[in-house]
Amino acid sequence: MKSAFVILSQLVVGLLATMATAADINGRLNLSSGYFEHPLGLQYDTAAGYLSSGLILDTSLKGESHAVRFGYEGNVTRFGGDTNLGSRRHAMGAEWFRSSPGQRGSLSAGAQASVRNHDGYYDVYDYFEGYGYFAFKSYFGDRTLGRGYAAMRIRRYSDLPEESFIEPHAHLEMQRYSESRTTLGLALDYGVKTFDDPTASRIWETLESPSTSQIAARFNFAQGFSERVALRGWLKNIWSLSDFPHYVADDVYDSPVLDHYAYDGLDSRLILKILGPSQTWIEMGGSWGRHDYGEMLFASEDSGAVREDDVAAVFVGIERKLGGDMTSPLLRLQLGLRDQGSTIPNYDYTGYYMTSSLTLKW
Asked: What is the pLDDT of residues 219-268, one digit of tens each?
C-alpha cells in the first residue's frame, strides 16, 4: 500500500506541474463541517463533529468535437472525539468526451486511480482503487433523454486482502420531459461484486471466490409548480440476486464490510424545493426505506439473528449563491433527524445530524 501511495503521489506531482503550465485550469474547493449523533450508525455511538475539505483541479485539451480532461481530486476529513473516522484520499484521472452534431448526444470514457488512508484503528482498511467507465447520453426527440454507463471498480486492501474485490456494474436511465413542468424517469442498475483474493474463499469458507450481485430499479419524478416551487422524489426497489458472503461459527458472525449489496428492499425520498428571498433555495423533505439482510446472521443479545431495518429521515436545508455569477461561492446548510428501527438492538437508534458546506469555483 505504501508503494502504491508513493507512485500515486509522484503522478499527482507530475499532473499538478503539467496543470500549472496550462492556460486553462478549473478548480473547486469545498469546505464542510457537521455533527452526527450516530456517525457509525450504531446505538451506542460516540457523537462527533467533523471538518472536511476537498479540492478538484482539472485542465482540458479541446478539439472541434472531442475533449480530453485531466484532473486531480483530494479530500481530507477529521472527526472529533475518539471515533477514528478521519481519512485522506488522493485521486487522479483522465476523461475523454465526444459530442455529436447539434449536441443531440455524447460519448465519454474515463479512468481514475486513488488511494485512501484512514486514521487510527481503521488504518487496516487503507486501500488502493482503480476505476474505469464508458458512458453515453442521447436525446430522442425534444423531450426524451437516454443515458447510461458501464464501469469497473477494482479495490485492493493490503492489510485485509479478503476484503479486496472487483465490481463490474452498469446503469441505464430514461427521462421524459413535458410542457407541464413534469419529469418522469426510470433507471436500472446491475452490479456484481467478487472478492477475488485467494484468502477470501478460505476465510468465508466458499468453494470459489465469494461474490454477490444485485439489480435495482428506480422511478424518478419531478413537478414544477412555478419558477419558485418544485417537488421531486423517487422510489427504488432493490433485489439481491445472491446472498452477501458471511461466516458463522459458535459466537462468531462475520462478513466483508457491509454496503448496499448486503440487503434488498425499498428506498424512497420526497423533497419540496422553494425559492425564497435573496435567491435562497429552501429544501424540506424526508426519506424512508426497508432493508432486509436476508439469511445473514448478526450478533444479538443471546445468539445470531437475522436483521431487518426500517430507516426514516426528515430534513430541512438551505442553498444560496453568495454572488451573481457562475463562479460565486455556494453555501449549503442542512439539519436532519434519522431514525432506524432494527430487529437487532445494536442498530436501533434515533439521532440528529447537521451539515454545512461552502463551495468555491474558479
From this structure: 999 999 999 999 999 999 999 999 899 988 878 888 999 999 999 999 99
Residue 268 CB neighbour total at 10 angstroms? 17
Asked if 222 contacts 230 with a C-beta cutoff of 8 angstroms, the reply is yes
**Nearest in space to 339 (alpha carbons), one of 37, 71, 107:** 37
Residue 128 CB neighbours (<10 A): 20
Element (H, E) at 88: strand 87-99
At residue 77, the pLDDT reads 96
Amino acid found at 204: W
- The three-class DSSP label of residue 207 is coil
Q: Which residues of 167-193 are buried (b: 16+ CB within 10 A; e: fewer)?
A: bebbbebbbeeeeeeebebebebebbb
- Report the distance separating Cα 32 and Cα 26, nearest Å: 20
pTM beyond 0.90: no
Query: Nearest-CA neighbor of 318 among 358, 349, 291?
Result: 358
C-alpha cell at 257: 464490510
